[in-house]
Amino acid sequence: MVLNWYAIFGAGVFNMVLGALWYSPLLFGKQWIKLMGFSKKEVAAKKKKPMGGTLAGAFIAALVMAYVMAHFVQYTRAVGPVMGATTGFWLWLGFIAPVIIGSVFWEGKPVKLYVLNVSHWLVLMLVTGAILASF
């Protein structure tokens, strides 16, 4: 099995960029903060904490996800962006969406927060699958 490491790296970078945009004030950051129930004081305190370790850990996790997803893309013999996105969709539907719904059932998080987060993951999985199956 030959994996395209450039595509895996690119998918990892895309993961970080999408997350930064999705949860920024430009898109859904304000809604996310509100739905999470963070106070202005909590947000200010979080902004003061160093982010280097968190970002490094998130990037490593993004690379692991892209690496594993690259295997699924190969297992499904997905070629091209549509087939890759289809693989991403089924992985999202089978693994991401059901797991994240636990935050509503067990943690009492709002359904709107679930929709915001699971939509982020849907876009991420569709595009990651498209990237991995295109190169």
Task: Give a verbal description of the structure.
The protein has helices at residues 5-22, 29-36, 40-48, 52-75, 81-100, 102-105, 111-134. The protein has 135 residues and is mainly α. Helix 1 (5-22) packs antiparallel against helix 7 (111-134) and helix 5 (81-100) packs antiparallel against helix 7 (111-134). The radius of gyration is 16 Å and the shape is globular.
Set out the fold topology.
Blueprint: H1 5-22, H2 29-36, H3 40-48, H4 52-75, H5 81-100, H6 102-105, H7 111-134
Helix pairs in contact: 1-4, 1-7, 4-7, 5-7
Give the CA-based shape: globular
Classify the secondary structure makeup into a structural class: mainly alpha
Number of helices: 7
Proportion of beta-strand residues: under 5%
Average pLDDT confidence is 96
Enumerate the spans where pLDDT stays under 50 for 5 or more consecutive residues: none
List key phrases describing it.
135 residues, mainly alpha, 79% helix
What is this entry, summarized?
With 135 residues, this protein is an all-alpha fold. 79% of the residues lie in helices and 0% in strands.
